[in-house]
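Translate sequence into structure tokens.
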Amino acid sequence: MANQTKPIIHGYFRSSCSWRVRIAFALKGIEFDQVPVNLIKDGGQQFTEQYKGLNPMQQVPAVQIDGITLSQSLAVIQYIEKTRTGHRLLPADPKKRAQVRMISDLIASGIQPVQNLYVLQKIGAEKVQWAHHFIQRGFEALEPILKETAGKYCVEDEISMADICLVPQVYNAERFKVDVDQFPTIKRLNQTLLKVDAFKETHPSCQLDTPAEICT
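Result follows.
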């Protein structure tokens, strides 16, 4: 498909869903522009009427691409998989593809939503303990699955949508003081993936005016 204009990611640097899309675009070699949506400033820029017009759920990211706006990270990833060449994000083999989707959904539906910013703001003073509990619980389920499916990456030896979901979730786990050493497969995969340019260069720390050491 011809790409006449660059896609625009409306996102927040620390949002794991926004990071997933940045990684996917980088793996595909897709150039993109970014419009920052600060989830903290002014009570949350995602709650403005202007942004609500892009994403009625008032979440990030919202991605403008090919004349449409998509507002769920996995939908964006699967759209570019169908419409762009470059690195394959979903395996051709149906069993491997199902495993990639299982891992992706476990993270994107089973872990991340219950520790996202909006939920934590509702929880209040116990937000850190809440996030820690649900990430810990999710990783306890994810670790034995990855022991069965992983090679160099989440599903054998090709980077896929599962890896795109895993790395931002480990970043969240570390933010909420989950001891990732308990999960040796998750830890190994994360360390391996953070050496890949598409993951390293799109890291939240690399979206700041003064990038961190990981970005170099």
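Note: The beta strands are 8-11, 33-36, 62-65, 68-70.
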